[in-house]
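Final report, section 2: Outcomes. Of the targets proposed, Medium/long-chain acyl-CoA thioesterase YigI is the one most frequently requested by collaborating groups, and we therefore present its record in full.
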Amino acid sequence: MNQQPFELTDELKQAVSSFFQRIPFNNVIGIEIDQLSPELVLMSFAMKDELIGNFIQGILHGGVISSVLDVAGGAMALIGAFERHQHLSGSERMARLSKLGTIDLRVDFLRPGRGKRFTASAVLLRSGNKVAVVRSELHNDDGELIAVGTGTYLCG
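The predicted structure is given below as tokens.
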């Protein structure tokens, strides 16, 4: 089977973006999609009072950190699945991808979540027929690495 090189078209980028913007919790956090490519996903959000976990120090809640790493990882897994399923029709591809879900997520908290803006990045480590493994990182606006995550996603 001779497959064309995978291109993440504007239409596919819009589909991924729309998928994640329709999740109400992502909107509560204020996640913005900055970059979608087969090699890298970048998302960012601004600090706000509703996201504080330690009110004495004013630092980001660990659940927000985990959630954002998971969202970035899920987007990367979805892009990897688009590539694997490019031979399917649009409706068949969407039927398979509608099952996207997190199987496992390990988060290592490295520093307190201090900052005004945070950026999550995700790269695909492995994409198989049904499961993808993604590595995610969260940095603050000073470039400090706040947390890393490794997620396993059902995507096919």
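The radius of gyration is 16 Å.
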